[in-house]
Write a structure and sequence with these properties.
Number of helices: 1
Oligomer: single chain
Helix content: under 10%
Order of helices and strands: EEH
Distance between the termini: 50 Å
Radius of gyration: 24 Å
Shape: elongated
Number of strands: 2
Structural class: little secondary structure
Length: 68
Amino acid sequence: MQAIEFETHTHNGAIELPARFRPWKDCSVKVIVFIAETDLPTTDPYAFDAVSLNTKGFRFNREEACER
């Protein structure tokens, strides 16, 4: 396996190969991505601020919970 290194920008979620590597365009490759700390998103898109649960009618049984 050969290893190459180059820097580029993503375009709509895709990474474009530099011209000198285009003959490999239909080859199977292994990709490792390093992102500069300054380019990381400031918030987690999957994070949430609060959870609201309706517990009306829920009966908690401590002994039953401890058995699990």
